[in-house]
Write a structure and sequence with these properties.
31% of the residues lie in helices and 18% in strands. The strands form 10 sheets. A 7-stranded mixed beta sheet has the order 14-13-26-25-24-15-16. A 5-stranded mixed beta sheet has the order 2-1-5-3-4, sandwiched between helices. It has a 5-stranded parallel beta sheet with strand order 19-18-17-20-21.
């Protein structure tokens, strides 16, 4: 600790801290312009200059370390004169266009001018500013407004890790430029800009800052659930922002949070119920629409005991809505035929994690990743699937001294910074993990005492790993012994380890075995036992964890309570008789094809685009007797429906959501429902009351108490509230003694001969909803297929050419993008775009399939 005096006040602060930090701790304000707490100081603006006893020249407080015995003065006539002249120099050739500048009212330069009585421009110079940069998507750059604080450059490089922005030219000709190939279009450069230099094109000229109301809420574009402010004027969402320091994401957002809200005001919003009469859809009022739905559900319930009724739901709904959905079907329609897209990935992973580790969701808060000494990212493009986790990896492995290991079939952004890259062959994931586990054990890099204490089958662990053929694993994965040994050593020697795995694993054909192997690695590497790091399964969808927790599947009640075992408990609570058995998504599909499922209720989910075997789903939906679609946007799916029920977006509802790290946060209603649309919970309650005669389904307030009483894991969670402070963590995970189970999984590879196609998420889109938002579409407007350069040459295609892809399930035509990220033989296509509909090529529970390709 060092002791110093600032403006006569004694201050004690840790060694290495700056004068500015010491002043802040003492409650003394020093003016700044270029300073941004979450990045390293630049010292560019010089406004924070202070006088130090014994120094002839004033020093910048933002980057001058405080030293023992230092005496600092922050306010004097001399300093006021210096600061005023600095601001006057900043205004040389600065345009007086405040009336039309989007930053007006929240411009830090305006504030500094006012605070320092700067009301003129006494200096003149030749105007050599660069022209306005308008060629970038989403963001306009106005160089003559720039004060060269470099906040945008630093947040891009240090926090986001994109390093797209840089200073071009020199001296007074310098301006901020961008490498578009690296840009993630996150909008953080706009957010930190102290002037109107960086302008959001989607917000430009929409409103003045003081005209808008800011409503604190949560972004549910992905499972990280960043805290945001929804900026509203005249019942329209005009922009989304986030404050530094007061939010868990420290003010950082991605393209999903900052630019993807345009679908809320889309002209394709569903605003009124519709009913299909004589193969023609017409508008209807809510009573007519819900009466039609309730009558058909009641009829089929009475005729078949509910066996002919089924429902599929989206992870974009709140916890309360998901709870009510499963209750509507079980208590109202006497049907346990309920499921979601979690069937194709997240639920498969979740079952293994709970069985082997007693874990639901991540083991730790995502901030623990940023403190880990080693990070392994396995089968996950984390920048695309959960950008906030990427930022934590940047903190661990770039700001701090953590080591980064990537294990992936294809290169991703984080390859730029990886210490080790395990580019394994597709399908060899289990072999890779078994090899790493064997090396950890053989080289004495495990805590055997901890393993014996926590692992119930420790002897089986040792026996199984002794049988792992390391040479065979190397041959299957295509890796060298040196690569695998170095990776194992990094994990084994680290004091804390973060293991992160995502869609390439979770949605694969061999997901269960691979996740079990990753659980083994989490046990041996110590990832579960340290305060930092942890195990982090990543699913891209916003409230997927809440969906899993709320029991929207035929096997479990909310809280992962076994359906058969706990049926009596819920029958007593709900005062109804509940059905036996039940169908999952694949069984529902089979049932429609056989005529056994006659009514299907889809809420916020589109099997025509998002589900594997999408063509098979299309044929089934054309056949089903009665199709109900409850959604927010019109699509091919809504045109097929017998009844369309317009729901609301996250900005039009309240309720709780659960992040991938078990954080429970609250959505706050920012705007009134668009048109005659209703919150999804209101629709469920109305239907349930029509089916049961009222009383069996609570309203949105009473459901909170009911969840707490019936779902032990949510018993202590605070749901209701407003503001960014209203978030809770479910009970923190801690491995119990003799609770961890080692799985004896074998490798051998799930290889595919010839060309194979991998599907997945890209950074610029989130599900299919963002394809209705102008922001993301300006960066990625259409689907495509990425092809290795060598494969492109063999196929005779180049960028922009069309390629026909054929699997045993179907075929499609897509434009080509030649990519250096892919190994030979592996193609990649994003699943978001209905026009390409890549999911039609998938043949089952998988995200990778053998294909044939030919130039069109």
């Amino acid at each position: 600790m060092v002791n110093l005096k600032i403006d006569g006040k004694q201050v004690q602060i840790k060694e290495g801290a700056t004068i500015l930090a010491a002043a802040e701790q003492a409650g003394i304000e020093i003016p700044t312009l270029c300073y941004l707490k979450k990045v390293s100081p630049t010292g560019a603006c010089r406004i924070c200059v202070v006088e130090i006893e014994g120094c002839d020249t004033p020093m910048t407080a933002c980057n001058t370390p405080a030293t023992d015995g230092m005496v600092v003065t922050t306010q004097s006539v001399k300093l006021a004169t210096i600061r005023r002249q600095i601001v006057e120099l900043l205004l040389v050739n600065h345009p007086l266009d405040c009336p039309v500048c989007d930053a007006a009212g929240e411009c830090e330069l305006q504030n500094v001018c006012y605070e320092h009585d700067v009301d003129r421009q006494p200096f003149e110079a030749e105007d050599v500013n660069a022209a306005v940069v308008d060629r970038w998507p989403l963001i306009q750059q106005v160089p003559n407004r720039c004060v060269m604080c470099e906040k945008c450059v630093k947040v891009c490089h240090e926090t986001v890790g994109s390093s797209a922005l840089f200073v071009n030219e020199k001296g007074d000709r310098a301006f901020i430029d961008k490498d578009l190939d690296k840009c993630e279009f996150c909008g953080n450069c706009v957010a930190v800009c102290p002037t109107g230099t960086m302008i959001s094109k989607t917000f430009k000229f929409k409103a003045r800052s003081w005209e808008m109301t800011k409503v604190p809420s949560v972004c549910i574009a992905c499972g990280a659930q960043c805290q945001i402010d929804i900026n509203v004027k005249n019942n329209k969402v005009l922009r989304v922002t986030s404050d530094d320091e007061t939010t868990i994401n420290n003010g950082n957002l991605c393209i999903g949070g900052y630019f993807s809200h345009g679908y809320i005001n889309s002209d394709q919003r569903l605003t009124i119920p519709q009913i299909n009469v004589g193969n023609v859809q017409r508008d209807a009022d809510w009573n007519e629409a819900l009466t039609a739905v309730a009558q058909r559900m009641r009829t089929l319930r009475d005729e078949t005991g509910g066996a002919a009724v089924a429902g599929l739901v989206s992870p974009r709904l709140t916890n309360e809505e998901l709870y009510l959905f499963q209750k509507l079907f079980r208590a109202g329609a006497s049907s346990n035929n309920i499921d979601s897209e979690a069937r194709f990935g997240a639920r498969r992973s979740s079952q293994v994690l709970r069985k082997n580790l007693g874990l639901t969701g991540s083991s730790h808060h995502i901030s623990h990743i940023g403190k880990a000494e080693a990070v392994l990212v396995f089968g996950c493009d984390v920048t695309a699937e959960a950008p906030a986790i990427d930022w934590q990896i940047e903190a661990a492995c770039r700001k701090r001294d953590g080591k980064l290991i990537l294990a992936n079939m294809r290169k991703i952004k984080l390859n730029r910074y990886a210490n080790s890259y395990l580019n394994y062959r597709p399908g060899s994931e289990v072999d890779l993990v078994n090899g790493l586990c064997r090396l950890l054990l053989d080289n004495g890099l495990v805590d055997e005492q901890k393993l014996q204490e926590c692992v119930t089958n420790y002897d089986a662990l040792k026996k199984h790993l002794a049988k792992v053929d390391l040479a065979a694993a190397l041959e299957t994965t295509g890796l060298t012994l040196k690569q695998m040994t170095e990776a194992a050593a990094t994990l084994g020697k680290a004091g804390s380890v973060a293991l992160i795995f995502g869609a390439d694993i979770i949605k694969s054909a061999n997901a269960e075995n691979t996740v079990a192997a990753i659980c083994n690695l989490a046990i041996l590497s110590g990832a579960l036992f340290s305060a930092a790091g942890g195990l982090f399964p990543v699913d891209e969808k916003g409230n997927m964890q809440g969906l899993l927790d709320m029991g929207v599947n035929p096997d479990e009640f909310p809280g992962y309570q076994d359906y058969t075992t706990n049926r009596n408990l819920f029958e007593k609570a709900w005062k109804v008789s509940l059905p036996e058995g039940g169908r999952d998504a694949l069984s529902i599909l089979d049932g429609i094809e056989k005529g056994e499922i006659r009514l299907l209720y889809l809420v916020g989910t589109n099997p025509l685009v998002s589900f594997p075997q999408s063509d098979r789903w299309r044929k089934a939906l054309e056949k089903v007797e009665f199709l109900i679609v409850q959604d927010i946007l019109s699509s091919e799916l809504t045109s097929m429906a017998h009844v369309v029920l317009p729901g609301t977006t996250f900005a039009e509802k309240s309720g709780s959501v659960t992040a991938l790290d078990n954080r429970v946060s609250c959505l706050n209603k920012a705007i009134a429902s668009v048109g005659e649309s209703r919150e999804d919970w209101e629709i469920f309650v109305d239907l349930c009351q029509r089916l049961t005669g009222g009383g069996s389904c609570p309203d949105n307030l009473a459901v909170l108490t009911e969840i707490r009483s019936l779902v032990p894991m949510y018993e202590g969670v605070c749901f209701a509230g407003s503001g960014h402070g209203q978030l809770c963590l479910k009970e923190v995970y801690a491995p119990e003694k003799q609770r961890l189970i080692y799985s004896e999984v074998t490798g051998g590879g799930q290889s595919i001969n010839g060309l194979q196609l991998l599907t997945g998420k890209i950074l610029f889109h989130f599900g299919t909803t963002s394809t209705f938002a102008p922001g993301p579409l300006s960066v990625a407007a259409n689907g495509y297929v990425e092809v290795n350069a060598g494969d492109a040459l063999s196929l005779g295609v180049a960028d922009g050419d069309n390629l026909r892809l054929t699997s045993t399930a179907g075929e499609l035509i897509a434009p080509v993008r030649v990519s250096a990220a892919l190994p030979s033989g592996l193609l990649f296509a994003p699943y978001h775009f209905a026009s390409i509909n890549v999911q039609k090529l998938m043949t089952g529970l998988q995200n990778r399939v053998a294909i044939k390709a030919a130039k069109v």
